[in-house]
Amino acid sequence: MDLLAHLEAYVATADEASFSRAxxxxxxxxxxxxxxxxxxxxxxxxxxFDRSRRQIATTELGLxxxxxxxDVLDRAxxxxxxxRSARRSRVCAVGVPADCAPAALARALRAxxxxxxxLGMRELPPLERASGLADGSLGYALVREPPExxxxxxxxxxxxxxxxxxSGGGAARRTVxxxxxxxxxxxxxxxxxxxxxxxxxxxxxxxxEERLYRAAARAGLPESRIRPxxxxxxxxxxxxxxxxLLLCTEPFARQHGAHWRPLADPALHRGYDVSAARGRDSAxxxxxxxxTLLASAVDATPARRGxxxxxxxxxxxxxxxxxxx
Length: 325
Description:
Layout: H1 3-16, H2 19-26, H3 30-44, E1 49-50, E2 57-58, H4 60-89, E3 91-96, H5 102-114, E4 118-123, H6 126-135, E5 140-145, E6 152-154, E7 157-160, E8 197-199, H7 206-219, E9 226-228, H8 232-240, E10 245-248, H9 250-255, E11 259-262, E12 270-276, H10 288-297, E13 301-302, H11 314-323
Parallel strand pairs: 3-4, 3-5, 8-9, 8-10
Antiparallel strand pairs: 1-2, 5-12, 6-12, 6-13, 7-10, 7-11
Keywords: DNA-binding, Transcription, Transcription regulation
Organism: Streptomyces canarius
Protein name: Transcriptional regulator
């Protein structure tokens, strides 16, 4: 027996003093309501309604049990409300890179609370963020995309050992080309091999690695000069010691005291989209406030948008050529 459905029939009939009106109120057929009342009477071992009159009346047993029946239905309704509220307020996991700015993530958490969403930040590599959206374990994520088609872009550059004061560090913002990293002809070979170029986990993405290897080949750099970095702390230690160059963003380099110069090739910069899991909502849209705050956490800026030819310049042409190999 569905106790709640039978109690609803009992309470509705007591309120309406009519089987037909109670059935209309519940949206069920009158014979079904009558069967539920009879089943409930058999369960309690006594009549709940006096049917001998033209208008039915609640019996003494019916009047005695009525407050308890109402209490059960009220508690069931509150239970449903709590369950609905819990579903709406459950933590929504957000996949983010490991090098996000904590203050920006804190702003996103506070904004989520203001918008009625409890966000939970999860630091994950790029491929795991994409798979998390696909399998539904993430609600939203910062997803790596080629920079020319992404909503947000972050310049990448090369971090190296700190430059001593008074040794020409004023050229820190001068862009660097990969051609500058190849050994100079005619220079006497030194005892130390050229430093490797380390890739953080965030840049170990198939399309990006393919672009970087093609660009390195054009610049005359052997593929062996490029290698994936292990833990970020180890890569930073090698970089600060002067035994490696680290491909990273400027905030990441500055945070750890490294010297940084931006890469001249925009096709080797990072591109990001803020995406929602499939089925997250009917449109699959990401709230604008969330996209803006997550982009700021990786120091990304909106890509230039517009009609045909918008934002096309010399750098954009080089980026398209690099992307095509």
